[in-house]
Amino acid sequence: MYANQSNIRMKLLVKLILRLSRILPSSSLRIWMLRKVGVKIGKNCRLFKADWGTEPYLIALGDHVAVSNNVRFLTHDGAVWVFRPEYPNLDIFGSIKVGNNVCLGFNVLLLPNTEIGDNSIVAAGAVVKGKIPPNSVVMGNPAKVVISIDVQKRLMLMSRFKFDSKGMTYKQKKKMLSGFFWPKNSQG
Q1: For residues 112 and 127, what is the distance between their CA atoms, to the nearest angstrom?
Q2: Structural domain contains residue 166
Q3: What is the pTM of this model?
């Protein structure tokens, strides 16, 4: 009986920590809490409000990883529900490994048994399953490699929409961007 109560308390504590991690304003506090429930997190990571699933200890992030808002880490396969009448104890789990220097865009879904290679970008809304090679940019559902990271870098550096805005105040940045996107002599 006591072992069962202890297990229930632990599950509730983990749920509480995972929920708190979604509302905390500080990435460093979020990282500290997620490490406490078993997420392996490398150095210099930037974590926004993500869903770390029910088995956070099956998730590993390398160094210099950015996890955008609404990224979901799914470490189990809920479709086993269909087979529960015949196999009442069936569960299927899988780990999720994210390499070094990776950016996971807004609303990405990472499915069980997924591995993202180093130096990769996963575009917003992508649904990822399986192994993504290093130096890749992936997008779509299912996620596919669309270009190499080197081509993406060249495209970003050539973009007419790139700006040096780091270190600017809100007012400075607003003035610069408003002047570019809404010039005074434009109509509309």
Answers
A1: 11
A2: no
A3: 0.85
